[in-house]
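Reopening this ticket.

The earlier resolution said the output was attached, but the attachment link was broken on my side. Pasting everything inline this time so it's all in one place.
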Amino acid sequence: MNFYESTHFGLRVTLYDLTSSVERNIKIRLIPMAHIGEKEYYKDVENKLIDSDIILYEGLKMTNNRLRIENRKILAKRLGLVTQANFNLKQFKDKLVHADFDPVTAKEKWNKLPLIDRIKTNLFFPIYMYFQDRTLTRIKYVKYFMKSNEDIEMSEGPMFDKKERLKKYFHYERNEIIFNQIDKTIDQNRTKSKRISIVYGAGHMKSIFRYLSKKYEYKAISGEFIDVFKT
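Inline output:
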């Protein structure tokens, strides 16, 4: 399954509705998120959440992530786009379940990384991104997604991480958190008729779908494109 499509005309993601022969009462909607896009993209995602009963969402709470976020804002402005900060999740506050690192866990896991990896992430990576973003266009940005179909985090630049310690932190360990929250949410609601929407980074969606498919036998019954931005 492809959760995003990158062409010379722009970038779009695919929303999937899932059903299971095992968990008959629970419908699941997978909505891939992009960090940068048109205002209309985030509005479209909000509209797709209206009929949800429960929303599992990402939100990496890192105190040292501010520079990366500021770089993203600068890039979005240059491209005539907006950042994920324009996504109004608060309107669904009674339905929200955080399924990502909390500040304490994020800090504990971060401090276990070798010093060189923390320096690369806090210093080298932002510098690399700053100079890369000065020449980036919408077309060039789309091309990063074309090159990273199996490794989508590369769309934001290299992690300089041959041993994949950073990749483990930013991706694999966060996957485990969403998997555990999926288990907990299904277990608490399997006797009720519920629609669970999972709003998470596009780079995590294949892993999330594989988990749902293998453990709970979920299958896609429909898909729908949502435009992120056009070139």
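Reporter confirms the inline version is readable. The mean pLDDT is 86. The first helix runs from residue 39 to 49.
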